Amino acid sequence: LSSLKKFDEIKKANQAAAKKLVEDQLSSSSEDDDEDAEVKQGKILDKTFTIYTSQTDGDATELERTRQYMNEAFQSGAMTCLICIASVKRNQAVWSCCGCFCIFHLVCIQKWAKDSLFLVSSPLTDDDFGKKDYPWPCPKCRFEYKRSETPSRYYCYCGKVENPTVDPWLVPHSCGQICEREFKPSCGHKCLLLCHPGPCPPCPKMVTTTCHCKKAKPVPRRCSAKEWSCRLPCGRTLLCGQHACENPCHAGDCQPCPRVSKQRCICGRQTAERLCASPQWQCDQVCGKCLPCGNHTCEQVCHAGPCGDCPRSGKRSCPCGKTNFTLPCTEDVPTCGDSCDKVLECGIHKCSQRCHRGPCEICRQEVEKQCRCGKHTKRMPCHKPYLCETKCTKIRDCQKHQCRRKCCSGNCPPCDQVCGRTLGCRNHKCPSGCHRGSCNPCPETVDVKCNCGKTVIKVPCGRERTIRPPKCKQLCSRPPTCHHSTQEKHYCHFGRCPPCRQPCHKTLTCGHLCPVSCHDEALVKQTGLHQSAGPWEQPSEPAFIQTALPCPPCKVPIPVECLGQHEVSPLPCHSAHPYSCKRFCGRLLDCQNHTCMKECHHVTKLNSSADGKKAGPECSQCEEECTKPRPAGCPHRCVLPCHPGDCPLCLQMLKIKCHCKLSVLYIECLKLTCADLKEKELLISCKNQCPKEV
């Protein structure tokens, strides 16, 4: 039970982490959010540069470097602390180097400064500690700061506001006030931008200044470019004193004279063509002039002035320096015969030979020598050094490796091994010598490119695995994967191209073009492929495969007449064939009295001249009785079924009593109904004597 409980807890934690990761990716990859952020970022930059551009009549060409720093401040993951290799967020306390303008977490730079000062001062003795203010370097540019300059509080970029509030409508870590830092190099003016990261732009103020050579009239120019050249010849006298500078108006000292002239050497024996800028030169001949002694000549190479006295004249000492002699310059100084007594190279003993010329011999006296480490002694010649074979076991300053040097004096040299520890970037190893404390940040930068490689941003090594690739404004150049010759225009991206939304326009069997969106790469859900192992297994997400779907049926409206030719309706092309409109047929039957009551149906025309409203062989046959009106007085029905034209004459016999009601007469119905009153009275009469009483 405990194992199952632990398994469920881990499972829930993993699911929550995966869900959060997906949400973060979806939120960060939203194009609408990115577009809103870009618009917002542009407004903030315009607000920051407003005062500066008002001084330059809208010219912002000098702001590119500052704009780059500010874009990195906005871009997610672009600002990276090189000490901890983590992103710098807008709600974290930071510190900015004034040399390279790199931004670090305040806690990280405080720990860095503390560790650097400890490593520098750790070899010192207790007497020396604290007497010198040792500096600590910036992790990136190695710009040195004093111990007193170690940051202890969080300030904005311009240093005016402590703990600046987080404002979404300002540059991160900015106070929103005018920067007012002095320009570098100093010109007396101050920065006009709102508090910003990175270096201040060049001074935009207008000043009146003249050119380098002071010949042109003063003109108004930007303070950052106040030094200018009128391009006229300089005209200043060169150092040679003979010619004038012919270069265009320039800053600083004039260049050496480029002209060539014939000049004598220092001794005056030789003449050569040389640059006018270097008139002093020596030839390679020995002077050779006779010295005042008259016995020797000057051995100096080409020189100026008198040669001087003979170097062998005056008092000279013997080789050991104990006896002085006054001899003519033509005689050599003899040895004095006393002991040499010069201190030998060992610095302890003296030379025991008689006064001699040349260097003394090496010291050959045997002495009791102590080795360099002081652990062993040995009797040996004084000139030979004594090193024992004992290896030093002291730990070097890296606090990791032993010295292992033979006969070490105790002043162990620095560790000569390479550190080799993996840096925080996880890509490179520390190339420095073995050292204590944390390694310096990796100095390398990595190019993070978009998919096409045309948009590149540089990030500190190690951040390329977590930073989002830059947004590229180039159009995607991949070939289309559907049947279209060109794909829809969209920006460079990673992964698969978005589904093609162009009309399919394939020719259907009916001849029309398919009007729906391209369906060559439709995502189709596949279900039922994976059989669960048991009820404990969670149902898996349905798999989607990409496949080409057939074109849907053609829906172009086609006017189609119904079977009975009652109406014409627009029908989709795929179902455009005669249909039943569900009305009664309505065609006049052969009886010419009734119409076909069948549902709308096909009627075969027997001949082309037939009436379109006439019933065909498919229509129903009239089975009704004749319902035409009978002649007045005829009580009989028509003996024929429903028929065209007039009914036949009624030939049935009517049984009628005569006027006197005594006789029954049989008269044809036709005669009776067609007769007038007189004729009817005659027909009804029985011709007998009327029995009625008068």
UniProtKB/TrEMBL annotation:
InterPro entries referenced in this protein's UniProt entry, alphabetically: NFX1_fam, Znf_NFX1
Positions of the NF-X1-type domain: 187-205, 240-259, 293-312, 346-365, 373-394, 398-417, 425-444, 482-502, 591-624, 634-652
Entry keywords, A to Z: Metal-binding, Repeat, Zinc, Zinc-finger
Keyword Phosphoprotein in record: no
One family name in Pfam for this protein: zf-NF-X1
GO MF annotations in UniProt: DNA-binding transcription factor activity, RNA polymerase II-specific; RNA polymerase II transcription regulatory region sequence-specific DNA binding; zinc ion binding
A GO CC term attached to the entry: nucleus
Similarity comment: family membership: Belongs to the NFX1 family.
Family annotation (PANTHER family): NF-X1-TYPE ZINC FINGER PROTEIN NFXL1, NUCLEAR TRANSCRIPTION FACTOR, X-BOX BINDING 1 NFX1
Protein name, per record: NFXL1 protein
Organism: Dryoscopus gambensis
